[in-house]
């Protein structure tokens, strides 16, 4: 087939798809709304990273204390380790977003 014929067909096909609503037009996002949305998602993810690391650390510490019959030694130790891991995860997240 002729290349001009193919180009003409593709142009008419895309125009027909747009006319019938089969292809969505690209809309440019509002930069202010996008910044607010990304900031909110970043804060939610950072909070989730901190809480989840702390919960895992406390659960491991409590489980070890319960299993070994000790008095909150591992709970305190793993709570501190979980908090440190949470801070480290948030630091890595912010560093990736910042581009450093």
From TrEMBL:
Which function does this protein serve? A possible function for this protein is to guide the assembly of the membrane sector of the ATPase enzyme complex.
Keyword annotations of the record: Hydrogen ion transport, Ion transport, Membrane, Transmembrane, Transmembrane helix, Transport
Q: Which domain of life is it from?
A: Bacteria
Which segments cross the bilayer? 42-64, 70-91
Organism, as annotated: Acetobacter vaccinii
Q: Does the keyword Methyltransferase apply?
A: no
Family membership noted in the UniProt record: Belongs to the bacterial AtpI family.
Any Pfam family the entry gives = ATPase_gene1
Q: What is this protein identified as?
A: ATP synthase protein I
One GO cellular component this record assigns the protein to is: proton-transporting ATP synthase complex
One example of a Gene Ontology biological process annotation: proton transmembrane transport
């Amino acid at each position: 087939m002729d290349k001009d014929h193919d180009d003409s067909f593709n142009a008419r096909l895309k125009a027909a798809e747009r006319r019938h609503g089969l292809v969505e037009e690209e809309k440019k996002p509002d930069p202010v709304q996008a910044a607010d949305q990304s900031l909110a998602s970043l804060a939610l993810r950072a909070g989730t990273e901190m809480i989840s690391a702390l919960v895992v650390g406390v659960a491991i510490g409590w489980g070890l204390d319960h299993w070994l019959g000790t008095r909150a030694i591992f709970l305190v130790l793993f709570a501190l380790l979980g908090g440190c891991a949470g801070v480290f995860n948030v630091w890595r997240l912010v560093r990736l977003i910042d581009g450093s």
